[in-house]
Amino acid sequence: MSDSFDWLGGEEVMELVKKFESMLENGMPLFFDVDEFETIVDHYYDMHNIDMSERAIEEALQVYPSSSSFHIRNARVLAYRKKYYEALELLNHMELLEPTNEEIYATKAEIYSLMNKYELAIKEHKKSLPYSENQEEIYANIAFEYENLNDYPNAINNLQKALDINPDSENLIHEIAFFFEITSREEEAVKFFTEFLDKNPYAKVAWFNLGIFYNTLELYEKAIEAYEFTLAIDETFSSAYFNIANSYSGLNHYKKSIRYYKETFKYEAEEAITHYYIGECFENLDDIPQALVHFNKSLELDDKLAEGWAGIGRVFIKQGRDKTAVKYYERAIELMPLNNDFKYELGVSYLKRSAYEKAEKLFGEIVENDAHYIEAWMNYSNSVSLSKGHEKAIEIIEKALDKNKDEASLWYRLAAYLYKSGKVQQSYYYIETALKIDFEKHHELIEFMPELNLESRFIELLGIYKGTE
Known about the structure:
The protein is mainly alpha-helical. It has 27 helices and no strands. Helix 19 (322-335) runs antiparallel to helix 20.
């Protein structure tokens, strides 16, 4: 509603408001034209002073009783007071008098949306289309009502209609990308943005989003190419440098990745997460001193960046300083308690140091949050096996299999625990089960139980199932 006084500055609006309040206080009638009354009404409404907004509407209607704008504002005030049906009744009466007034339909749609009647809101928006000079906004509003209905295909369809009207709208491009992303429709997004860019080759935000979807699909070279088009249009687009760095990291080109991460610092303030990613690249290059420099720099910029704490912890573990690493991981988990990867890395450290109960607790928390975290199940069972015996470990693996019946690694591990607990015949039954699911993963079983390499029965089984791959 505040759009109505774009023609006035803030001081002029306040002068009008003071003049209006002076009139009420003194009881002396003063003249306000329609635009001035609208400005006063909207000021109070935007300030959530609904009593005064209503009073201003009453005064305005005494002077301009046939002005539809004040009846529409009155309907909005009624809706604010949750008198929805009373507001709709007023608007329906107005619609009969002014069937081409798009603001009536917009207000009805707004009220239906407040009532969670999104289909009716969409219907009202569509009724206004023939009379509107701003169809782009109407299609965008329809899209958001479809979003309320969780109908993302129709939301995207209407945003596309809006974008057809205004292909230069970066907001619309971002909104369409958002809906493609949350519906995991990456291939469709690539097709849409490719076709859009054929017609609008200088749309940098479209190139940028195309890069994001290529990156999600792990088509890193294509992602880099799309980001480079973004930079060709606008070399100061710092997010494009950052995303190129991510794509090079996906290709394991860590030196190039570092160069592009650092490029972002030319166009925006240094960010903690960027230094973390630079540190991660150096870590992958086995340049531990530089990795630590950037992990520490990330914490200088933001000491609540959990990734920075975990990065330092990870480096200390690589240096064999597990005891020192623990406090860094504990801080990372404190900052991000739902991050299973941090818990997993710390759990592995505890397991290596024979702190089985601590490891068991962490792995147990992980699988409770994510029943498909297979490595956590494996290490959970291992820590239980080492502290409480194979029978308890078997129970853990059986729980894991309840949620992951097609995971060969779990069947191999179940077979291993059964073998170690003396149930050899049963163990071989599950070895066969695992071989049928994924022959190649039998190497995991051999790594866990190298003694099987000496058993002719096991070697014979491998020969049988190798031929059935």
